[in-house]
Amino acid sequence: MTFELRLLATPKAVPELRHHLRHHTYEVRLCATELVTNVIDHVGEGTPVTVRVLDADDGHTRVEVTDPDPRALPVLLRAGATDEHGRGMALLDALTQRWGVEQGADRKTVWCELNCLAERGRSSQGAAGTRSP
Length: 133
What we know:
The chain is an alpha+beta fold. The protein has a single domain, classed as 2-Layer Sandwich (Heat Shock Protein 90), CATH 3.30.565.10. The protein is built from four helices and five strands, in the order βααββαββα. It has a five-stranded antiparallel beta sheet.
């Protein structure tokens, strides 16, 4: 299944995006909204973006967000306990198998890949969050 949505990166668009992705895992929704939030914070509110979610037959899901600024690249920071910002890409890095950036002359696409079969397995386990080996 492939999902594609064009929108303006605004705070109001984030919950709307989550709603459009309601049939995907929590992790997919979180990654997609985090990438759109990064556009708001680092490229500018109102920037046109395209969000894509591509499900592969092998259980992997790729989330992509394309914006028109090839220069504003994401940076993996290690935020301190009292920092108010800087955790987004660290969260994405922890949740995904890998992530990266594809640059074009007039755009960039920040992407990440998740193993959603594993994520579904984790979310279907008991409330205590324990896993069987």
